[in-house]
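Check my protein:
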Amino acid sequence: MIAQLTPADFNAWRDSPGAGTPAPVVLDVREPWEIQTASVCEDGFTLLCIPMRDVPTRVEQLKGKLGADQPIACLCHHGMRSLQVANFLAQNGFTAVVNLQGGIDAWSRQRDAAVPHY
């Protein structure tokens, strides 16, 4: 079962691994037009944008680049696509994956009101 993380709790999750661990990754799985419309800004995490449809063909590349134990928070518009991607990553050996519940819509409401709604 994939852990659900609210944007309001993101900072605590981001800061929990401790010193010496790499910054977590926010994997935005929305389409390019959605990212142009509204996006998060890197803040103690690395932002990686890969549309959901491309994740299966890039999973081995991600594992090689990030490592299977890299903390990853998956993000989409409302949290459904990102949940599917988080499950896929977990099934393919990633061990520290969470879903950002409510997606960028909740991010805008709970964490950063400067992020536009669409």
